[in-house]
Structures are given as structure tokens and as C-alpha cells.
Amino acid sequence: MADTMQRWTMNAVGREHLQLTESAIPQPGPHQVRVKVNAVALNYRDKMVIEGTMPLDLPLPFTPASDMAGVVDAVGSGSTRFRPGDRVISTFSPDWIDGKPDGDARTPPYRTAGGTYQGMLAEYVVVDETWLSASPTSLDDAQASTLPCAGLTAWFALVERGHLRAGESVLVQGTGGVALFALQIAKAHGAEVFITSGSEEKLLRAKALGADHGIHRLQGIGWSRSIN
């Protein structure tokens, strides 16, 4: 095994400062695990963090991206949750283990990977064992890496907060990552799904994923009147 790895880092805010660098492969400490990263999902939030439109106190030099999937390849002393060879995914808010968090949207209580903490855009990452969850066996690494931010955002909105039931109607605005997860989760729960987009091509793709109704938001009488 080599002694060094590649990772993306930035020493200042701005895409022009993002560089592919070489550094020593980190070693896991007590209750930590090292993961060989096989896939990283990029969210719009990551773009905002890199470009500074989501102002955060970044730990410089900073590695972006919150979501990854990979394989545990080493564990530190006292680590019991995972073993080398286990497939894992990251968690978006590693400090929020369970229960209702404090704060609100204006003063979010969570400290996130790829924000307050270092991100996942590297060949190897070392994190506390509680920062990881087992990767679904039904998904490959590229698919599983999209779950921590976009997938759980859609699930939380529709299921945890929305208590979605079969036969209800769901409006999905746009065709980004959260929207496409919302579409598929809603259909899996037996809902009727309306989806909007400014692209006919994207509407056709959404219908192929199960959307019942596609509304071109730039044509006709507008999505609100179209649904009514």
C-alpha cells in the first residue's frame, strides 16, 4: 500500500483555490475507522460551500463534499461498529445521532461534514465510527453515496415530517437530486406525483421514473393553476 493519497483541498474560499493535492494516508485513532472512498456525490450545497455563497467557518486547508461511499480498510483501537471490508456511507450531520435537534433553519444546530468538518473528496478518510452507516446491499457505491444529503432530505420531508400516505398527492418542484429522490419515495408510498421543470427532456425523464404528471413551468397557465 502506498504512503500517500490524493485529495481535493482549498486554502481559501473560491473554486479557483480548489486543487488536487497529495498528502499522507491518515491513520485511524481510538474509535476511528479509515475508509477507502469509492464514490463521492456532489450536491448543490457543496458548490455553495466552495464558492462561499454558504458562509461557513471552514477548517483550512479544507476538503469539500459531505457524501461518500466506500469500504473500511482499517480500524483504530476500541472501534467495534465496523470491520475491514465493510461497505459504509457517510452521515451528513455526524453530531446528530438521534432525537429532535435544537435550533431552526436560520440557526441550524448541526455541524456537517464538508462544512464545519472536513469533507470526503479524498482517496481515504478517517472519521469517528459513529459518523458512518452501513451501505445498503441493494445499491452500488455510486448510488449509495447519494443518500446522506439528498436522499435523507427528501425522506425527512415526505415521511418523517409529512407522514405521507398512499393516495395523497405530492408536488415536486424541479428535477434536482432531492426532487428525484422525492419523486421515487412518493411513488413507493403510493402517492400521485406532480413534477415541474423548465425542460421537456427532464419531464420525460421524470415520467420514466414514475411521475404521474409533468408540468412545464415556462409554458401554459402556470403549475399552480395546472394542478387545480
From TrEMBL:
A Pfam match: ADH_N
Q: Which domain of life is it from?
A: Bacteria
Name the enzyme's class.
Answer: oxidoreductase
EC numbers on record: 1.1.1.1
UniProt keyword terms in alphabetical order: Oxidoreductase
Every copy of the Enoyl reductase (ER) domain together lies at 14-228
Q: Does the keyword Zinc-finger apply?
A: no
MF annotations from Gene Ontology: alcohol dehydrogenase (NAD+) activity
Question: What CDD domains has UniProt attached to this entry?
Answer: MDR7
Report the Gene3D superfamilies cross-referenced here.
Medium-chain alcohol dehydrogenases, catalytic domain, NAD(P)-binding Rossmann-like Domain
Entry protein name = Alcohol dehydrogenase
Gene from which the chain derives: adh
